[in-house]
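WARN retry 2 of 3 for item q-0093 after timeout on previous attempt; input resubmitted unchanged.
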Amino acid sequence: MPPNQDMKTIPASGLDLNEQIQESETQLRICCYGSSSPKTLQKYINDAYTLGYILCKRGHICVNGAGEHGCMGAMNLGMEETDGTGKVVGVIHEMFIKDRDRGICSRSSNSSNRNSSDNNGNSSKRKSLWFEGCAPVFKNCKSSELIVVGGDSLQQRKKKLVENIDALIVMPGGPGTFDELWEMACAKQIGLIDYPIVCVNIDGYYDPFYSMLQRAHKDQFLYKHPDEILQFESNSKKAIDFIESFVARKKNAEAGTVDSSRNSDVVKQNIVRRTSFMKRMMSTMNVSISFGSCKDEEDLGKGNIFLMLGVVFTAGLALGSITPLNRR
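OK item q-0093 returned
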């Protein structure tokens, strides 16, 4: 194992382990994506450890792909090495169930319980099964849960990872992480989900993603502004802080909406009456005489009569002024 993958010597990046971390008032179920490669750089490993450590200390549920390497393994180790009240949930595909004694993969439909008995009732054989690349926390920690899914692809696993979650945190990773991130970004922009998606943008790793969203928004390919789709934070602690604040604001806003709706059973509307036809005509003709408001068709008819009389009277005055001139 490379030196940068010595998980037992990982310090929590930017975190004082002796610092008192307060438990959150509300337990959140947070899915965390990230690399599973043993070649993951140490700076990403450190921050992923911090992610798992803080989530557990604050009493949250961390849902991830159950891997033992990369960001995934580091966050699982961070969860394991704390005495917090949090819980870690791993979601793994049955194709990774492995009988290490026989060196073969098992694809039994009963693989959702690795200690379950087979069709002959033989449970001892199932006990020898474990999961290739699965983090030790799912063996050693009582506050862990391992969910096994089936199917011919990883779609069922991806669906289970985000089931009933309150937020999504995305650590640096490769194409698999990109695929998961863009799928959820798509779901967010078309309104299928409304929870926050936070990219942990260590050393600008996700800057190109932000630039792509900005370009797509500029070229009118998005239904929402990029800031409504993805949030970018420089480290995992800030990502958790953002999510907790977001959920608290949403909760308060929903409570405020309920309270205000109780007082809005009767909505008063100020109906503005349109200026009468006659007044608009008089204004156009610059006539200072007011005939009052025409409230109905009868008034409108009377107004038309007055208008005609006014025109005749004005014409008479004009003729009277012209006639003497002609006589001269």
